[in-house]
Amino acid sequence: MDTRQPLPALACFLLFSCFLYKAAPTSALSDSEADYIARRQLLTLPENGDLPEGYENTVKTTETFENERLRRAFIALQAWKKTIYSDPLNITRNWFGPNVCSYRGVFCAPALGIPKWTVVAGIDLNHANIVGYIPVEFGLLTDLALLHLNSNRFCGIIPKSLSKLTRMYEFDISNNRFSGPFPRVVTTWKSIRYIDLRFNNFEGCLPPEIFEKDLDALFLNDNQFTCTIPETIGKSTVSAMTFANNKFKGCLPRSIGEMWRLNELIFTNNDLGCCFPSEIGLLGNVTVVDISFNSFTGSLPQSLSSLKKVDILDVSHNKLTGTVLENVCKLPTLSNFTFSHNYFSEESKACVSPGRDDVVLDDTGNCLAGRIKQKLAKECQPVVSKPVDCNKDQYVVLSSSSKPNSRMPKPKSLVQVHPTPKP
Ligand SMILES: *[C@@H]1O[C@H](CO)[C@@H](O)[C@H](O)[C@H]1NC(C)=O
Ligand SMILES: *[C@@H]1O[C@H](CO)[C@@H](O)[C@H](O)[C@H]1NC(C)=O
Ligand SMILES: *[C@@H]1O[C@H](CO)[C@@H](O)[C@H](O)[C@H]1NC(C)=O
């Protein structure tokens, strides 16, 4: 067999980079090494990561294949194997010869539309701890519906050629060292339902189209995303979504109240601000709301008391002011309400710990008179005396809106992190 060599010098370089990584005593690839690999990988990607039409015809193979699609899969898998420097569990050891369906981690199924053809429909290399990257030739695996690469050490970017994987349904590349912008190619897949990009080094903005896909789950936590969250979020059909541990900034779009399928709302540890949108109260099915470790201002919306299924409510480590309301602390299924490290200056009796036996309440680090472990008066005074008015500045009510509760932010509010405090 004679699959095309990427570019020998660069390939060697990539292997060398991964070698440095392997030799390091920690299991982490340094940021600069990963960036460097990504940049070198870009240089080896023809047409900016896309695959020319009919590319497979330029590759010579001597083996015989059951059908043309298996030959293409063979070219892709051999190209991929070449990028693998370290495979400590020997998962890819039997990746040779024309019978790709027998390769470890590779799953075949009858082709959609041509049932007598067997094709590669899934690849599952979870927890293989492999070091390598995804080559452009991966785009030849056009029947792939499932890709599980969870917990490996793949680095570099997701090549554009993956747009040819039109049957992709479940895409899990979590816990690797992938980098670059959000892999936009996922928004081109018509059948995609499940996207897991957790624990990588993706950065920059989210494409607004991602929330217009018919997804069940979208996991983005523990990356380096920085932008505001697109207003399209309200169109999302997901039941599970995580944004935690990134650097998202700006306001939470009010359209979030339209995500009625959502079970958990997790935004912990970002740079989000503004008033917490009252539309949250429309999410009657959520069980977890965690907006801790952000810079939300103003008072908690009254509408929180509509979250009749909420179990865990964590608003700690923000800049919230005003009163912690009784009807929130008395929510029927609440088990843990943490509102510590804010600027609350009043709390209902029902919110004072120990209150109900079945609810953990934490009010420390606030400005509550007569409670222990509060902020110093000089720290509280400037904030408590000038609370942010959540009805002002930040949003405008669209009177033409069909939904009485659906308020849209003014475009400028997307970049306005903190509304002007009341004089
Ligand atoms: C993988 O293969 C190499 C060489 O064949 C062998 O030395 C090593 O022990 C194998 N590792 C595992 C985890 O099977
Ligand atoms: C909760 O989910 C059900 C379907 O699972 C849906 O019919 C209902 O409208 C949702 N409730 C709210 C308040 O969104
Ligand atoms: C309650 O939630 C807080 C914050 O999420 C957490 O740190 C704490 O351990 C929880 N307490 C219990 C008893 O589960």
From TrEMBL:
Quote the subcellular location field of this record.
Answer: Membrane; Secreted, Cell wall
Q: Give the span(s) annotated as Disordered.
A: 399-423
Tell me the leader sequence span.
1-28
* Record Pfam families: LRR_1 (PF00560), LRRNT_2 (PF08263)
- From the Swiss-Prot or TrEMBL record, give the protein name: Cell wall hydroxyproline-rich glycoprotein
Xref: InterPro entries: Leu-rich_rpt (IPR001611), LRR_dom_sf (IPR032675), LRR_extensin-like_regulator (IPR051582), LRR_N_plant-typ (IPR013210)
Q: Which family does it belong to?
A: Belongs to the RLP family.
What membrane topology does this protein have?
A: Single-pass type I membrane protein
Where exactly are the transmembrane stretches of this chain?
Answer: none
* One cellular component term from this protein's GO annotations in UniProt: membrane
Q: Which domain of life is it from?
A: Eukaryota
The record places domain Leucine-rich repeat-containing N-terminal plant-type at: 76-108
Q: Which organism is it from?
A: Hibiscus syriacus (Rose of Sharon)
